[in-house]
Amino acid sequence: MDRQQWDERYMTDELIWRAEPNRFLVEEVARVKPGRALDLACGEGRNALWLAERGWQVTGVDFSPVGLAKARRLAVVRRVDVSWLRADVLEWNPPQTAFDLVIVMYLQLPADARRRVLSRAARALTPGGTLLVVGHDSTNLTEGTGGPQDPAVLFSPEDVANDLPGLDIERAERVRRPVHTEHGDVDAIDALVRAVRANVFAASSD
Question: How many separate domains does the chain show?
Answer without folding.
Answer: 1
